[in-house]
Amino acid sequence: MDQRFGKTEKLKSKKLIDKLFAEGKSVKSFPLKLIYTHYESEDLPELKTGVSVPKKLVKTAVKRNRIKRLMREVFRKNKYLVTKDLSSSHAFMFIYISREEISYEKLEASMKNVLEKFMQKQQGHEKAHQ
Predict the structure, then answer these.
(1) DSSP characters for 63-106?
(2) Which stretches in the chain have pLDDT values below 50?
(3) How far is residue 50's CA from residue 10's CA, in Å, rounded to a whole number?
(4) Hey, which residues does 95 pair with through a beta bridge?
(5) Which backbone phi and psi does 91 adopt, to 5 degrees?
(6) Positive or negative torsion for Cα 126, 50, 25, 62
(7) Portion of the chain with pLDDT greater than 70, in percent
């Protein structure tokens, strides 16, 4: 199982980020919010992922960067929950919505929860289109 989080998996395209915030759907599991959208890709189904910690909620850059590192690491370890059943390409943005710092374990539980909610919505969406 590939647990890398390489350059090709990072969400960097301004156009895709704008589309994500304009027409993306979201699921929450405190302290994480996942905004996601489907996009067309000529390659195999892939996942472009970004993380964000608002300056308004977490004032110091040191704390923001630490939370972002933890979020990327937790996603890297648990992305298999999503990629095994992915039928089309998606863009993800994880946004941290708490003022307090959180432990790795709680962040991991929240990440798993939010990814499961995403998969449930996707399966419901696919059934509706059949």
Answers:
(1) HHHHHHHHHHHHHHHHTHHHHTT--S-EEEEEEE--SS---HHH
(2) none
(3) 6
(4) 33, 52
(5) -110, 135
(6) positive
(7) 95
Residue 12's nearest CA partner among 117, 128, 93 is 93
Distance (Å) of CA 104 to CA 68, 70, 75, 88, 130: 11, 7, 11, 30, 39
104: left (phi over 0), alpha (psi -120 to 50) or beta: alpha
CB 68 within 8 A of CB 60: no
- The CATH code belonging to domain 7-128 is 3.30.230.10
Position 129 scores a pLDDT of: 64
How many angstroms separate the CA atoms of 36 and 20, rounded? 6
Place of tokens 């993306």: 24
Stated as kind and residue range, the H or E segment containing 32 is strand 32-38
Can you tell me the distance from the alpha carbon of 25 to that of 118, in angstroms, rounded to the nearest whole number? 10
pLDDT in tens, 30-66: 999 999 999 887 777 788 999 999 999 999 999 999 9
